[in-house]
Amino acid sequence: MYSKILMPTDGSELANASIQAGIEFAKKVNAKVVGIFVAANYQYPIYIDIIPPNTPTEEEYQAAMRAFGESYLEPARVAAHKEGLEFESVVKFSDAPAKEIVHTAQQYACDLIFIASHGRSGVGQLLLGSTTSKVLSMCDIPVLVHRVKKH
């Protein structure tokens, strides 16, 4: 069925719930799991004349975002290992997260993307979240959209 599943997260509650559901699904089909966090690219402060001394360098920003990404992916790693699944985490930088998710799925030879219906934007929207919608429109491999049920 599926041998390697990509699971994106933005660290939100909804994404975490979907990751847990994705791990359960991966266990059922005995698939490897690749977790991904996509951080925004570093933005140079070009709109001001003097750069404040507390502005992080690009290297500092990337190190901080890698740390955030790994912390967001850690619950998935723990859950996967608890279920005896292979897990690999990936932190990427892009201002087009959907495009990066699809590219990473291809790069890591994933045959399914298991993604939350919404991320940080929340469930207040009537339609799918923008990143999820873009992944669906760009992707040529199956995408399973997980919707968290309200209690």
TrEMBL record:
It comes from the Bacteria. InterPro entries: Rossmann-like_a/b/a_fold, Universal_stress_UspA, UspA. Residues 1-145 form the UspA domain. PANTHER family: STRESS RESPONSE PROTEIN NHAX (PTHR46268), UNIVERSAL STRESS PROTEIN HP_0031 (PTHR46268:SF15). Belongs to the universal stress protein A family. This is Universal stress protein. It comes from Undibacterium aquatile.
